Amino acid sequence: AADEEVVGTVKDQLAKLFEESLRVTVPDQTDTDPLIAACNPRFGDYQCNNAMSLWTKIKGTGSAFTGPQPVGQAIMTNLPRSEMIESCSIAGPGFVNVKLSRQWIAKSIQKMLIKGIETWSPKLRVKRAVVDFSSPNIAKEMHVGHLRSTIIGDTLARMLEFSNVEVLRRNHVGDWGTQAFYKASKQRFDSDPGFKERAQQAVVSLQGGKEKYRKAWSQICEISRKGYEKVYQRLGIVLEEKGESFYNPYIPGVLEELGKKGLIEESEGARVIFIEGKKYPFIVVKSDGGFNYASTDLTALWYRLNEEKAEWMIYVTDVGQREHFEMLFTAAKRAGWLPPGDNSYPKANHVGFGLVLGEDGKRFRTRSTEVVKLVDLLDEAKSRCKAALVERGKAEEWTEEELEQTAEAVGYGAVKYADLKNNRLTNYTFNFDQMLNDQGNTAVYLLYAHARICSIIRKSGKDVEELKKTGALVLEHPNERALGLHLLQFAEIVEEACTNLLPNVLLWGQRRRQADSCCVKRLQRSCGNASIYLVFGQSTRYDILGEDSSHLQKDFDNYVWAH
Ligand code: ARG
């Protein structure tokens, strides 16, 4: 039965031990939570940082302690015995360093391997979240900005889903503003005031539900929708469209509520919400009576909170929209929909991302200075991969279908990976040669590494299923220990990536990089359990790339046991 219990992260498990120690060490400080953090590897694996703050609380209260160091010393002495811990030491003003036991690390990994990847998932506080991503605009092409939103949003959704959060994947399609009509006539819209007015009037008629306008509008939407669907299919992305128009019927009610709460004021014919510290107000009804992006987003937020009962609302767009979301969230806080701080739930976050740049360092455009079409990028990634495979003689070895499928997996994976590997806020240069390089930090390299590992397993000729039952995992070399610990910290890293909404943390943390390079070396000599890291790293990256990783999980297990 003890085997069945949910163990939690390494940090959680240590926190439990320290909690007990703190209860004994300072019995009257019952509200002290253990402060556990990873520590400098020279001193140990983790440290407990409670001594200093405890000392400031208890000094002068007649306590027997004479300073923070003795407090730390006592915390260390009172720590219950556990197979988890190999040794402890005190550093500086009472930090308690912990070195984990090698056997315990091995045993824990082994347990997790046997039980499957689900037991590696962190437990987040949130039950249901909305991830609002992709969200292109009707009658316009999806461009690289939407590519980023689509890839980052899908990854966040996957990370949260893995962490037991129910995710409502929302495509907040721009199907409702002037753009629904004016794309082809954009120039005229800008140069002919009469035309502009008629266009804006058309939007008001559409939003008012006039039949003729409705019909034209739904035809236009349908055409765009078909185009988007193709892209999502190619990238393996699941989304549920609830476009701007969906919220239209709810807008008047929501605005009425905000009006009653005294948030809405008149300004130059428009109805607005003034936001402290902002130059412009948040316009919720335009002077022509039309609703806009802000009215829709206020209403969507209301809907997600009240109708969909989401506790976390996540919006993935370029950083250029930061101001809009700041105003939106401030208004929601003033309305009492969201709590005042940023750390309690329900919570709303804008996940901004930087620009995609061309080789010239400027915003990525084609020669004709048009925006770069997403489909063209995907086509080129695929055809370049196919050419590379043909060059390697795969056309003779494989069927046409295999060739196509591989070119797609590698090509689209490369595009996704190049986007995800950087901190999302940094601008990055779009470069096919770089992202399709089979040596660098690329999807291509990872996919090749995975294929190599599979062949090692095959050639080992061992009965892995049998070994799995009888074998024992040993972490001999210091590098293997480091890798083992790193594997165990998987849940912590996923949790960090979710909390900070940063997919790149999962892909390529600093320690991960060290672990990778060391296990790759070992893998090349094709020996040692260290290689398990790479395989495991692979499967998490596969998840991120949107591939089904269940087969990899199996390879991973098999590989570990093949050694
Ligand atoms: N359609 C917008 C754009 O292309 C993005 C919408 C983002 N989501 C939202 N709820 N505002 O820029």
UniProtKB/TrEMBL annotation:
Catalytic activity: tRNA(Arg) + L-arginine + ATP = L-arginyl-tRNA(Arg) + AMP + diphosphate
Pfam families: Arg_tRNA_synt_N (PF03485), DALR_1 (PF05746), tRNA-synt_1d (PF00750)
GO CC annotations on file: cytoplasm
GO biological process, one term: post-embryonic development
Family, similarity comment: Belongs to the class-I aminoacyl-tRNA synthetase family.
Name by which UniProt lists this protein: arginine--tRNA ligase
Arginyl tRNA synthetase N-terminal domain span: 12-100
PANTHER family attached to this UniProt entry: ARGININE--TRNA LIGASE, CYTOPLASMIC, ARGINYL-TRNA SYNTHETASE
Domain DALR anticodon binding, first and last residues per copy: 446-523
CDD domains, per database record: ArgRS_core
Cross-referenced SMART domains: Arg_tRNA_synt_N (SM01016), DALR_1 (SM00836)
GO MF term list: arginine-tRNA ligase activity; ATP binding
Species whose genome carries this gene: Rhododendron griersonianum
EC number(s) reported in the record: 6.1.1.19
